[in-house]
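FAQ: What does the model actually see?

It sees only this:
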Amino acid sequence: MFNLIVFGVIALVMLLLGYQIKYKKKASLISGFNEDLVTDVNGLCNWVGGLMLINAAIAFSTGILMACFPTTLNFILIYFVGGIMVTCIFAVMGTRKFKKKF
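And it is asked to produce this:
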């Protein structure tokens, strides 16, 4: 149950940040954001915010899986770390299309 609470709080924070970035277009919440280097701020916000919402779903599902299957915590943590790493790779690769070419 403790795992569900911890991962639920993590998911809630990611959900709030993802919502603010994707729907409220708060690009200032994106780490290293510089408007002078971006061609499409709205597109970048949609991309990064959407990935944050996916990370929130991964975190929440990790908490649920840990609560339901406590004997397989190692595999569930591998799922969590792998999911977060994949979305980070997508974030890095996807944000390149929003950078200005000099």
